[in-house]
TrEMBL record:
PANTHER family: INTEGRAL MEMBRANE EFFLUX PROTEIN-RELATED, STAPHYLOFERRIN A TRANSPORTER. This is MFS transporter. The chain crosses the membrane at residues 153-177, 189-206, 218-236, 305-326, 361-383, 403-422, 431-449, 455-476, 488-514, 520-542. Its main location: membrane.
Length: 559
């Protein structure tokens, strides 16, 4: 079957299969575990578990090329593709030559000299020694990268820092502006709620669009549109205008967050998920530490200056995120040949996207466990924990109105420290690190039930911040490793929408409990953090569950 005419002008780089240090992130190696499982399900159980032992990559390259052609789409639906089953053999199926007799060829010019060199035991072929025996998680691979390879990561981290800083400053300055003009009441509370409403209503549909379009462009447009919205807040003349702007700001948040999540896979080189996500988590946590203080100080200058400066920060975020490069196959996807987003997007989300996402999560026990714990954590630590600290401060330190701010600052400092420390845990199994962080954080929350010493309370808040940040780095790294790129936007759009709801539910729950007993609130928060981890502990600790290649291909991929 020939596809010369549709292929011409649409193709990017071909699939590579080299295991050299420079090309470790080639498509074939990245998809090896998925292809191996797919072929095994079809009765072709010939590929070894360790990709280093594969000596002929023709069949793997054919499968990866066919899947890429289906995605573009160059191969029409219902077409048959014949892949010869003989294009794969590995060590043990033949007698390998003595590697001491192999001479490296550095360039075409040195080829004749290499062919003519005598046998020398000191000359050996370099074989990468940091490919895992079983490709469980790429966070254990530590290939070298250059500063040029990390530039996309730096651009994304800087953009994420700018967007997050603008959001934190707005979350402090906007309520102050509303209360200053209109006082405290139901209408002012509704203003804050309207910013979250679009994410509840349109989050899943935004993820569908992100996965089908260019996430870089979506992230940049959301930041550009958000800039004038933020700048207009102090120039409004009635509360309904502020509420309308808040609703519009929420729409940019709904589409922008999953778009930036989808860019992680483009900015972080394969094998560097842990260190890359550590930098991104640091970029997210720093604004929560410096943003509130900066907003409080800036308000003294004037609301107009605060929001206009915030708009400039949003513009810088757009300029930075546009520097994150596309993958080689993505320019072709932006043309007119790409299938448009379905008109009936509601039916598509619930009939296709949700079942496909469910199959992907259900086919990988580690991914399923991470998703469940992520949702329960939004309810427990994010929802219950933050509100509990406010109740704890009001109960024991009612005369010191600033102590709650100290607790939040201590947690922020811990979060920054945790994002810096996270890469140091790469030598340990990430499932074990994730469980350990949750259990230590649970102990820190329970300490509030036993004492109310000022120093111990601040130390416990710092420990919570460290554990939360390290756990977040592991979570994002493993999600990036296990989840197919085409599902990242949809996954995080559903996750964030559900997480926001669980966050509100957790705050309401702990508010009822703390009003009667602060100690009970501390124990309830600790239990909500550790009980789901203890229930799902085998999925994180046992090797057969915590495999990154336990992912089941969907029907579309198995065509």
């Amino acid at each position: 079957m020939r596809h010369n005419r549709p292929v011409r002008g649409l193709t990017g780089t071909g699939p590579g299969a080299s295991l050299s240090q420079q090309t470790r992130d080639t498509e074939c190696f990245a998809c090896y575990a998925e292809v191996r499982q797919m072929l095994a399900g079809g009765g072709m159980d010939r590929l070894p578990r360790d990709p280093r032992k594969l000596r002929e990559w023709a069949m793997v390259m054919s499968v990866v090329g066919s899947l890429t052609a289906i995605d573009r789409p160059l191969i029409p639906a219902g077409a048959e593709v014949l892949i010869p089953g003989s294009g794969a053999y590995s060590e043990g199926e033949f007698e390998s030559p003595d590697r001491t007799g192999l001479h490296p060829v550095e360039s075409p010019e040195t080829f004749p000299q290499s062919c003519g060199r005598p046998h020398s035991p000191s000359v050996r072929r370099r074989v990468p020694d940091n490919i895992p025996e079983d490709p469980m998680t790429t966070s254990s691979i530590t290939p070298q990268t250059t500063s040029a390879n990390r530039r996309p990561l730096y651009f994304l981290a800087s953009s994420l820092f700018a967007v997050r800083l603008a959001a934190v400053v707005t979350s402090v300055a906007l309520p102050l502006l509303v209360i200053h003009r209109y006082g405290v009441g139901l209408d002012s509370g509704l203003t804050a709620a309207l910013e979250l409403l679009p994410n509840f209503l349109f989050g899943p549909f935004a993820g569908e669009i992100v996965d089908r379009r260019n996430p870089r462009k979506i992230a940049a447009v959301c930041a550009l549109v958000g800039a004038p919205i933020v700048a207009l807040f102090p120039f409004t003349h009635s509360l309904w205008q502020i509420q309308l702007l808040g609703l519009a700001s929420g729409l940019t948040y709904t589409a922008g967050v999953p778009a930036r999540m989808a860019l992680r896979g483009r900015a972080i080189a394969k094998g560097h998920e842990l260190s890359g996500n550590s930098l991104l988590v640091l970029a997210q946590r720093l604004p929560t530490l410096i943003g509130p203080a900066a907003a409080a100080l800036a308000v003294q200058i004037g609301y107009s200056a605060v929001f206009v400066a915030n708009a400039v920060v949003c513009l810088s975020a757009a300029l930075l995120v546009i520097r994150v490069p596309l993958r080689p196959d993505e320019p072709a996807k932006q043309g007119s040949d790409r299938p448009p987003v379905a008109r009936n997007i509601v039916a598509k989300v619930f009939k296709q996207s949700l079942p496909e996402l469910g199959r992907s999560i259900g086919g990988n026990p580690g991914l399923a466990a991470l998703t469940v714990i992520g949702c329960t954590y939004m309810f427990s630590s994010y929802g219950m924990g933050k509100f509990f600290l406010a109740g704890f401060s009001a109960h024991y330190y009612s005369r010191d109105g600033s102590f709650f701010g100290y607790l939040v600052a201590a947690m922020g400092l811990g979060a920054v420290a945790g994002s810096v420390l996270a890469p140091r845990f790469r030598k340990f199994r990430q499932g074990v690190v994730f469980v350990a962080c949750g259990l230590v954080e649970s102990l820190a929350w329970s300490s509030y039930a036993m004492q109310h010493n000022r120093f111990v309370a601040l130390s416990a808040a710092a420990v919570v911040g460290i554990c939360e940040s390290v756990g977040a780095v592991v979570y994002y790294s493993e999600i990036q490793t296990r989840l197919p790129d085409r599902l990242v936007g949809r996954y995080f759009s559903f996750y964030i929408a559900l997480g926001d709801g669980l966050n509100v539910l957790g705050s309401m729950t702990i508010g009822i409990v703390v009003s009667s007993s602060v100690s009970s609130g501390a124990l309830l928060t600790a239990g909500a953090v550790c009980i789901p981890l203890l229930v799902l502990c085998p999925l994180f600790l046992l090797q057969r569950f915590w495999r990154a290649d336990g992912w089941t291909p969907t029907a579309g991929e198995a065509r």
